[in-house]
Design goal:
16 strands; binds flavin-adenine dinucleotide; globular; about 35% strand; 7 helices; Rossmann fold; alpha/beta; about 260 residues; binds FE2/S2 (inorganic) cluster; Elongation Factor Tu (Ef-tu), domain 3
Length: about 260
C-alpha cells in the first residue's frame, strides 16, 4: 500500500454526470489489481472531511484512472480539479477479484459499478459478456471500451432508453440458461447497488456457479482500523463472522455474504 501525492494528468467529462480523473500514480498504479480501490483526500477539505473511496477503473503505464459521479461535497470539489493539481491518494486497497478462475465470465454492472469491471476485463485471460444496467441511458458507461476489448455487451435500462427495458438480471438469467444449455461453466463478477448484487448472488447460488460481488459500504479509514464498513459473513462451516469490507473485501463470493 502506498500513500502518494498524485498529480492530475487529465480530467475530462465522459457524460454530463460522469468524469474520468487520470492520475500520475507511479508504483501505486503498477501494483493495482482489478477490484481494488483507492482512498482519496479531497484537496481543500482535509480539515473537515474524510477520505473518499473509489474503484480503480484502469491502470496503465503509471496512470491510474477513476470514473466517478458528483453526488456530494467531496465529489463536487473533486470535479473542479484541473490538470497538474495534486491530491493525496492511498492504495491500492482491498483484495481484488480472483483472476485465475475458469468458465465463461459474465460481468454484471449497475451504474458506476462498471468501473472495476472494466479494469477486470482488461486483465482477465478470457473474454465473455458484460451485462450492464441503469435507470436510464445516462447511467450506461464505457460500453464501447468493452466492445473494443472484444467483449459482448448487453444493456438494460429501467425506462427502456437504451437496450432492453427492465432490470439487468433478466438478460443475466437468459445468459445463464443459454450457458447451461451449452454445458458451459459460468463465473460471475458484479458491482453495483446492493439489490442487484443480492439478486446476482441468489442466481449464482441457485445455478451452482461462482459469483464475486464487490460490496459498496460507507468507509472511514479504508484500511480495517475503524469498523465503519462491517459486513456479516458466512464461514465455510456455516457459522458467521463480522468482516470489514475495506480490508477483507470489497470482493466476496456470493455464498459468503449474509444479506
Ligand atoms: C469500494 C468503493 C468503491 C467506489 N467506487 C466508486 C466509483 O468508482 N465511482 C463513483 O462515482 N463512486 C464510487 N464510490 C462511491 C464514492 O465513494 C462516493 O460517491 C463518495 O464517497 C461520495 O462522496 P461525497 O463527499 O461527494 O458525498 P457525500 O456528501 O459523502 O454523500 C453524498 C451522498 O452519497 C451517498 N454516498 C456516500 N458514499 C457512498 C457509498 N460508498 N455508496 C453509496 N452512496 C454513498 C451519501 O449517503 C449521500 O447520500 C465507491 C465507494 C466504495 C465504498
Ligand atoms: S473503513 Fe475503517 S474498517 Fe473499513
Amino acid at each position: 500500500m502506498f500513500d502518494f501525492l498524485c498529480k492530475v494528468k487529465e480530467h475530462p467529462h465522459v457524460t454530463d454526470d460522469y468524469m474520468l480523473i487520470q492520475l500520475h500514480a507511479g508504483k501505486l498504479a503498477e501494483q493495482a489489481r482489478p477490484g481494488q480501490f483507492v482512498h482519496i483526500r479531497i484537496p481543500g477539505l482535509e480539515k473537515t472531511s474524510l477520505r473518499r473511496p473509489f474503484s480503480i477503473y484502469n491502470s496503465e503505464d503509471g496512470i491510474l484512472s477513476i470514473l466517478y459521479k458528483a453526488v456530494g461535497r467531496g465529489t463536487e470539489v473533486m470535479q473542479s480539479l484541473q490538470p497538474d493539481s495534486e491530491l493525496q491518494v492511498i492504495g491500492p486497497l482491498g483484495n481484488g477479484f480472483p483472476l485465475d478462475g475458469s468458465g465463461e465470465p459474465l460481468l454484471v454492472a449497475g451504474g458506476y459499478g462498471v468501473a472495476p469491471l472494466y479494469f477486470l476485463a482488461t486483465r482477465l485471460n478470457r473474454k465473455g459478456v458484460l451485462l450492464v444496467g441503469g435507470r436510464t441511458a445516462e447511467d450506461i458507461l464505457a460500453i464501447d471500451k468493452f466492445k473494443e476489448l472484444g467483449w459482448r455487451v448487453v444493456v438494460a435500462t429501467n425506462d427502456g432508453s437504451m437496450g432492453e427495458k427492465g432490470f439487468v438480471t433478466v438478460p443475466l438469467l437468459r445468459e445463464l440458461e443459454s450457458c447451461k444449455a451449452a454445458g458451459k461453466e459460468v463465473e460471475m463478477f458484479s458491482c453495483g447497488p446492493d439489490a442487484m448484487l443480492k439478486a446476482v448472488g441468489e442466481m449464482a447460488i441457485k445455478s451452482n456457479s461462482k459469483a464475486w460481488l464487490s460490496l459498496d459500504k460507507h468507509m472511514v479509514c479504508g484500511v480495517g482500523a475503524c469498523l465503519a464498513c462491517v459486513q456479516k459473513l458466512h464461514k465455510p462451516d456455516g457459522s458467521t463472522w463480522i468482516g470489514r469490507v475495506c480490508s477483507d473485501g470489497p470482493i466476496f463470493e456470493a455464498g459468503e455474504i449474509v444479506w
